[in-house]
Design brief:
Two copies of one chain form a homodimer. By secondary structure, chain A is α+β, with helices and mostly antiparallel strands. The first copy, chain A, has three domains: about 100 residues, Uridine Diphospho-n-acetylenolpyruvylglucosamine Reductase, domain 2 (2-Layer Sandwich), CATH 3.30.43; about 110 residues, Uridine Diphospho-n-acetylenolpyruvylglucosamine Reductase, domain 3, CATH 3.30.465.10; about 190 residues, FAD-linked oxidases, C-terminal domain (Vanillyl-alcohol Oxidase, Chain A, domain 3, 3-Layer(aba) Sandwich), CATH 3.40.462. In chain A, the strands form five sheets. Chain A has a seven-stranded antiparallel beta sheet with strand order 17-14-16-15-19-20-18, with helices on both faces. The longest helix of chain A is centred in the C-terminal third of the chain and has 17 residues. The interface between A and B is medium-sized, with 35 and 35 residues.
């Protein structure tokens, strides 16, 4: 669906204001030229009044002041890989792409990376690796996603149980607040300003520069793949690993239909059919690979207790790459096979993970919908996918199934979003997750920091009143 | 000095509202009975209109709503060990002591402590130790300070370089916001609410329950004391230790006059005279004490390079206790010897620590004041003490010297408060440390979360307009 913007007035003002950027080929008003910018990974689309490829912090300051003064919605866009609609111009206005502000400076001595907001997560990792350093947060879309998008959603990733999420690596950043002031904030800034901004989904301020903490590159990891006949066996393996105190750097789960999608998308993916698959990586800091091997052995022993139909320690780089690429491509595979999908990322305590998986299986059966799931078993973050079916409009059925998933997640004490954010896709459910004092508190913060509600409006909150 | 409160109206209303608490012996209106509650460690005092020893969260909710409705200042008080005047009733109003809400529940399985806001930091540590667990943050006043006071100031302590500050150990807490609503917040609460509250000096909300993360008890530590003829030698030792990547669990510095005060206060403290003293503790997680011994050896080797006049590895528990008690008592010793003192806790990067120490020495010489310093060398946090002299009113001279100290600290890129907070003693300097956008942002947060400005008013900000 594409919602048209009706603010002729905004369009006229923006055309006037962005004339010189248009001459530079950086401002656009007709989206036939840039159709991919009106949507994101949700496949929902909204038409902004204008699109600007921003180049610098001073330009962004002017933009913020102009949009505030003219009451024009301002939406920042990273790579559009988000699954909650955070980068969509729901109320029209100016969509600003930060993809050209992508400089990356690695300082090996202080083990930091100073990057532009549009730097690609995977490029930061690669630059760090070139200095034998490492940037751990790796959302599945890390080869495309931008760092500012990661900050806006406080993205996690496959390694987050062991290494933490985006927030844990941000030393400081420069932001422009809704009143058009620019300032540097860090962990020592009073009133927890850094934590306030990270995860605020573009509704409170704009990131213009980010300084990240890097760590020493871990030793080369061991990769293990295990397939089971019953999803409950895989769940027991995860529980045993956690209670044994083993912390793999990655511990990913896929259900039967996710495995099928992966196999269909790439038959040469190294993965056997089965009810459930676990994919592990173990690593260790520094060059000592003994710990990684020892942990891999422990994981293999635990897997063997539950009669895996496949259990392999990857032998070489090429086998590892094949397995991880199957996992990294899973989201695309599901989308491709299912002819579109709605993806939700619910999260429960690891101890409730088996119940959640069982519920998804049951939900698929009772609803008659094609639903599959995969995710980060170590921290209970499950990506549940509702697949489109050709020739049928199963939208309303999917909507009902999503509600049931959310209700079950909250019943299990979980949260509606592990790392994708609330955006527009979950804002109708936020009142179910947070109590009234918490919601009021959040609304008050939004209202006080952006009184005219022009920064990424209509996100997170169903209403601001 | 004692400032009288002039709000007869508030007093009358509070007497009416607190009648039943008065009958229980929990509410007081005459401070002759409780003279210690009108002041804190700054020795400045202000008269509140009433003092209540609170007993429960429901009572605190009523109190917050009553004070808000009647526009009566509400000040929460832990143990009054603060050095920034945070617990003083600057504008009169109701002073609430939380010291009776001091329950401590240790859960060994989840390694957590759930405690009341008035639980004494040292009692939490002791309770944790009884379960072979450990609560690391240890402000010098930990034997008296309350946990809610620690949260309000985000207190650090001797071990903070290795183990982090209070904030790093708070899993969740229950708070009452200025609108009288109670809610639970944790690290996952949106908009970084937990980080917003920790360190907000009682100006944004009230803590009613706190859940703390505990760690496994480290092995028994090694204690080393080293005395040098020149302060610059001690500073070089610190620099060498940091650049060698050694992280002692404690690394404390004392200057010549601080050593003198300690010796005068307790001649049997195990400390020799000298220009500078360093006191180290090394430890390691678990029961393996090899790392602690190895680090102690490395520290001794580095100290020896700078010709210490005393260098000892404490031989037994009693010697360790004696040395640490000298350090823990230092603040009292300085106050006692100097007949009162003004204590500031400035903080610079460890690399600028030597310059800061040299400046304090020079400031003492040029001002003619008795000034000494001690502090946490590992994280550049220096407690600078301006001593009172009997028979002289050197207040204005001290004020000028403090200004010079603050200016120098900022010139060195430092911060005016490592862990004591802004309170009233530093609020006139906050505009020197933070830029206008940051200050405006903080004021906006305060104004939006406490629009009637009744929660600990007149703290942090010189003005709120």
């Amino acid at each position: 669906m594409t919602m048209p913007s009706e603010n002729i007035n905004h369009a006229t003002k923006l055309k006037e204001a962005l004339r010189s950027a248009q001459a530079d080929g950086r401002a656009f008003f007709d989206f036939a030229e840039h159709p991919e910018y009106i949507k994101d990974a949700t496949e929902i689309s909204f038409l902004p009044d204008a699109l600007l490829f921003a180049e610098s912090e001073p330009e962004l300051i002017d933009i913020v002041r102009f949009c505030k003064a003219n009451d024009i919605p301002l939406i920042l866009r990273g790579a559009g890989t988000g699954y909650s609609g955070g980068a969509l111009a729901v109320k029209g206005g100016l969509l600003v792409s930060i993809e050209r502000m992508n400089q990356i400076d690695i300082d090996s001595k202080s083990k930091t990376a100073t990057v532009g907001p549009g730097a690609i997560t995977g490029d930061i990792l690669e630059a760090a690796q070139n200095s034998n350093l490492f940037y751990p947060p790796d959302p599945a879309s890390y080869l495309d996603s931008t760092i500012a998008g990661n900050l806006a959603e406080n993205a996690g990733g496959l390694r987050c149980k062991k290494y933490g999420v985006t927030k844990d690596y941000v030393i400081s950043c420069r932001i422009i607040t809704a009143d058009g002031q620019v300032k540097a904030i860090d962990a020592g800034s009073p009133f927890g300003q850094l934590d306030l901004m990270i995860g605020s989904e573009g509704t409170l301020a704009i990131f213009t520069e980010i300084k990240l903490r890097l760590i020493d590159h871990p030793c080369e990891g061991k990769t293990i793949v295990a397939v089971f006949d019953k999803a409950s066996d895989a769940a027991m393996v995860v529980a045993d690993i956690i209670s044994a105190g083993i912390v793999p750097s990655i511990m990913e789960f896929m259900d039967r239909d996710a495995i099928n999608c992966s196999n269909q998308f790439d038959p040469d993916n190294g993965i056997d059919e089965g009810a459930a698959l676990l994919l592990f990586e173990t690593d260790a800091t520094g060059s000592d690979s003994q710990q990684a091997s020892a942990e891999a052995d422990q994981i293999i022993t635990i897997c063997n207790k539950y009669h895996p139909t496949l259990l392999r320690l990857a032998e070489d780089e090429s086998e590892k790459r094949k397995l991880w690429s199957a996992r990294r491509n899973l989201s695309n595979a599901v989308k491709h096979v299912g002819q579109g999908k709605l993806s939700e990322d619910v999260c429960v305590l690891p101890s409730r993970f088996p119940e959640l998986i069982a519920f998804v299986e049951q939900l698929s059966e009772t609803s008659g919908l094609r639903i599959n799931c995969f995710g980060h078993a170590g921290d209970g973050n499950l990506h549940v996918n509702f697949l489109g079916q050709p020739g049928t409009d199963n939208g309303p059925m999917i909507e009902r199934a999503v509600v049931r998933l959310f209700e079950k997640t909250l019943e299990l004490g979980g949260t509606l979003t592990g790392e994708h954010g609330i955006g527009i896709t979950k804002k109708d459910f936020i009142e179910k997750e947070f109590d009234i004092p918490t919601l009021n508190f959040m609304k008050r913060l939004k209202t006080c920091l952006d009184p005219s509600n022009f920064l990424n409006p209509d996100k997170i909150f169903p209403t601001l009143s």
